[in-house]
Amino acid sequence: MKIAVLISGGVDSAVAVDRLYKQGHDLHLFYIRISMDNGEGECTAEEDIEMCTLIAKKYGLPLKVVSLHEEYWDYVMEYTLRAVKEGLTPHPDMMCNKIIKFGFFEDRWGHEFDKTATGHYAKVLEKNGKFWLATAPDAVKDQTDFLAQISYDQLSHILFPLGDMTKDEVRAAAKEAHLPNAARKDSQGICFLGKIDYSDFLERKLGTKKGPVIEIETGRKIGEHKGYWFYTIGQRKGLGLGGGPWFVVRKNIRDNVVYVSHGYDTKLQYGKEIYMDEMHWITVNPFNSDLFEKNEDGSICISFKTRHTPEFFDGILFHTGDHRYLIRSEREVQGIAPGQYSIIYTPDRKICLGSGMIAKPLK
Known about the structure:
Elements: E1 2-6, H1 11-22, E2 26-33, H2 45-59, E3 63-67, H3 69-85, H4 92-108, E4 115-117, E5 123-127, E6 130-134, H5 152-155, E7 158-159, H6 167-176, H7 198-206, E8 211-215, E9 220-225, E10 246-252, E11 257-262, E12 270-281, E13 300-305, E14 313-321, E15 324-334, E16 341-345, E17 351-359
Helix pairs in contact: 1-6, 3-4
């Protein structure tokens, strides 16, 4: 099989190459370059490309460096900045996968190959004549939440060679294969932002604007912040307030006010109802499919996440009209942040069905 392999210089994509190479496939390696010509993002591209070159030479494979930096900044980062200015919590990594890796790359290069492979921790299952996005065995590293906005056409063209491996197994495989990046640390932070700090990036793009931090129970001003766009619902760290813990529980965008509540057990940072707009189903809409059992009221049982974590929540999903949905969770969910995504899974946590953007409740 002729396969385009997206490699980053990290150990995960390198082990993906090793596995596919040993299976005898015709591999063509691609590195997507995002860093801007003016240095925006301060990406580690040169170091990454050097590592990718070593991998390509080790296996005698062609490596092509392709540029999608304008597309990334025009689409992914513009979406991110627009969301934070609206007081929402964006998910740029999810958009990067949907728009860049499996969007523009596929349209320009990937479509020429039988499949496109990446080092994501996820699986593609074939069941009932369809492809499904399935979770990886390593619950901590599972990345289906970052892939929950891809389309069915995109999913049907993807290979995840690490889908049956844990991170420890990947590290061991890299060491056994004598890969040059076997001990290289995992990258952290937002997709392709490189070493730049996310808060520094927001300050560079949106500036600062001082405003009050208000204790929501008392209305008492307890500090100042540098702009509501630096804070997200449920945030605890980086508030600069003494006598904590303090949690962000609300934001007034018009007046640039950040409201906080004190203590771990404050009910203001928890909720059981999550409203969603812009629902995206990857393979099928479960409400329109005979493959999924419906409750008497038409709802379906699900598991879900609202952030990148190994922890799942159980709940009931309702279709409340048009594109609007409601999750009723069995347990309290901390920090429900509009603009983020609820990732919807089957009750057994094995299949990722899709995702919906968290919305503010209708009043």
